[in-house]
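Just curious. Invent one:
>
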Amino acid sequence: MDYHVEVDKHFYSVPHRLVGQRVDVRISSALVEVFHKTRPVASHPRHTKGGFTTVPEHMPKSHQKHRQWSPGRFLNWAKEIGPCTLEVVKRQLTDRPHPEHGYRACLGLLNLAKRFTPTRLENACERALKLGSPSYRSIRSILDKGLDKQPQQEPTQDELPLHGNVRGPGYYH
């Protein structure tokens, strides 16, 4: 799916040019070695389950370019806009295998704050969170259509009409 291979529930990077290619992995108690067509392409110290080990040179150029960004930098920026924007950015960074995968969406949100206004972005993020769709695409759509300027309707509880076929809580005692 990306430029990592999974070994014992830990992910190790390989050169991104090998995405979709078959690789062989040799595992020892201390080392994970990755081979492509019998040629060694990556070597990592072995780690316990969970987490990622990524060599910067294995990343595509677009990911390397964004190494100057960090989750903390995005979170600090989002915190200045508001709590809903902060929540959306947190999700962009944590709902993906690697925080770097969320950087593009976070940079897109930064641009939306410039193109529209921080206040409108915060309102759009709030609406997107309530809709259960806090993605860049959803937030941009909300802003493009001006939905962030419209009052949000609270969900209404439709009550059933009273009639003989409706049993109340007393029926089950």
